[in-house]
UniProtKB/TrEMBL annotation:
PANTHER family linked to this entry: 3-(3-HYDROXY-PHENYL)PROPIONATE/3-HYDROXYCINNAMIC ACID HYDROXYLASE, FAD-DEPENDENT MONOOXYGENASE
Pfam families: FAD_binding_3
The protein, known as: FAD-dependent oxidoreductase
Gene3D superfamilies the UniProt entry points to: FAD/NAD(P)-binding domain (3.50.50.60)
NCBIfam families the record matches: PRK06185.1-1, PRK06185.1-3
InterPro entries reported in the protein's UniProt record: FAD-bd, FAD/NAD-bd_sf, PheA/TfdB_FAD_monoxygenase
Record field: transmembrane: none
Keywords: Oxidoreductase
């Protein structure tokens, strides 16, 4: 495609598209290694309500490896040393993070905008880090059979970013993977999520929890002064739910969690309830010359287990470890990109299989249940033998293949006198 002469053209060694957990982590790590990186984020800020809020023990460990853990933990967060649920009135503990071989034996519930703002501020320490907000990638620039950059819209008009490598970190509705024509294997999910807030009262028990009753499921995330609620519904049933009216919706929430009956009126209208469609998919091939997909752009994750952010961050660390030196030497060819997929594909496959198992065995059954629920045997075993809770803690908290920072920090120029 010919360049429009009115378009601004910018150059970068690597252009990262998407300022979510994958994109911010990758951009920061490459800039820290001395590379010239441009991160494009289509929104004006990170203040989106519907991002997951979990910072896992393995991500906290990475922060320690970078020497910024103490600073991160100065942000507001709620530590969860264990996670569990309430199944028809019985409280169960599923994972106990306190025994993990890391500095922080807990999941930090931290609003994701705080985490991303923190990473943006950390990235700004490195001269090669350029974060461009309100820049939405709209297309790829292709030359001689390879991706040579992206086109984006910006507040100042269209812009072209030419780069040796474009990394698509633009999430589960990735524009770039569609433009690249990548095949997508749809794995499917039996549920969607209605996402809304309810006020938190001083005497509420401060605990993020999944509550399961026959035909209903509600996850409540403690955000300090309010509860972020995820009301899980059968896939595609949002219109039926809306047609039944807001009073019925409020009653549905109160049925699952009676302690919220005194505040469901705070859901003033349907604008306060966002539909989040759940997708689980994977690209058979994550790359082509000049372009790599990671995070949800390569493999959209289900919310089950709250592990998608962890996987996105781990992808970014592995990608930085593998790409930093070849990018510096301008030899990040397709074989190098294939190494990133080879390293991260099986952790992705294993994690998605576990998510699908839980989606089908637990979520679909609970949503379809009409009779009283009982605590399934594997969960009962976890209550009888607490050390068994270390296994789910490992899977959720560390992931299947935890990564470590291997990119060195490039020396920074001394400040001018
Ligand atoms: C309902 C729901 C709840 C979830 N809860 C959790 C949870 O609690 N814990 C957890 O670990 N995981 C959770 N997940 C999964 C998790 O959200 C994802 O796996 C994770 O966010 C993936 O990170 P990412 O950086 O790859 O993509 P994203 O977080 O989706 O980030 C993509 C970024 O790219 C930007 N962008 C998109 N298109 C463009 C473009 N064209 N140009 C420029 N920028 C663009 C977006 O604005 C966004 O900032 C949940 C998923 C769902 C559906």
């Amino acid at each position: 495609m010919a360049n429009d002469p009115a378009e601004t053209a910018i150059e970068a060694t690597c252009c990262v598209v998407g300022g979510g957990p994958a994109g911010m982590m990758l951009g920061v790590l490459l800039a820290r290694a001395g590379l010239d990186v441009m991160v494009l984020e289509k929104h004006a800020d990170f203040l989106r309500d519907f991002r997951g809020d979990t910072i896992h023990p393995s991500t906290l460990e990475l922060m320690h490896e970078l020497g910024i853990l103490d600073d991160l933990l100065k942000q507001p967060y709620v530590p969860a040393p264990t996670i569990g649920g309430d199944i028809a009135g019985t409280t169960v503990t599923v994972a106990d993070f306190r025994h993990l071989p890391v500095r922080c034996g807990f999941v930090a519930f931290m609003p994701q905008w705080d985490f991303l703002n923190f990473m943006a501020a950390y990235g700004a320490r490195f001269p090669g880090f350029r974060l461009k907000m309100r820049h939405e990638a709209t297309d790829l620039v292709e030359e001689a059979g390879r991706v040579a950059g992206v086109r984006a819209s910006s507040p100042d008009g269209p812009v072209t970013i030419r780069a040796d490598l474009v990394v698509a970190c633009d999430g589960r509705h990735s524009t770039l993977r569609a433009r690249a024509g990548f095949a997508v294997t749809d794995i499917g999910a039996p549920m969607d999520v209605m996402w809304f807030r309810l006020p938190r009262r001083p005497d509420d028990v401060a605990e993020s929890l999944g509550v399961f009753v026959p035909g209903g499921m509600l996850v409540t995330i403690d955000r300090g002064d309010y509860w972020q609620c995820a009301y899980v519904i059968p896939k595609g049933s949002a219109d039926t739910l809306r047609a039944a009216g807001l009073p019925a919706f409020r009653a549905g929430v109160a049925r699952i969690k009676p302690a919220f009956a005194n505040r469901v009126e705070a859901i003033a209208d349907w604008d306060a309830v966002k539909l989040l469609t759940v997708t689980v998919d994977r690209l058979p091939r994550w790359h082509r010359p000049g372009l790599l997909c990671i995070g949800d752009a390569a493999h959209a994750m289900s919310p089950i287990g709250g592990v998608g952010i962890n996987l996105a961050v781990q992808d970014a660390v592995a990608a930085a470890n593998i790409l930093a030196a070849p990018l510096a030497e301008r030899r990040a060819d397709d074989a190098v990109l294939a190494r990133v997929q080879a390293r991260r594909e099986w952790p992705t496959v294993v994690t998605q299989r576990l998510q699908v198992l839980i989606q089908n065995r637990v979520v679909a059954r609970v949503l379809g249940a009409t009779e009283a629920l009982s605590v399934p045997l594997p969960l009962r075993l976890l209550q009888w033998f607490p050390p068994l809770r270390r296994l789910p803690a490992r899977l959720i908290g560390m992931g299947v293949r935890p990564e470590h920072i291997a990119t060195p920090e490039a020396p920074r120029p001394a400040p001018a006198r």
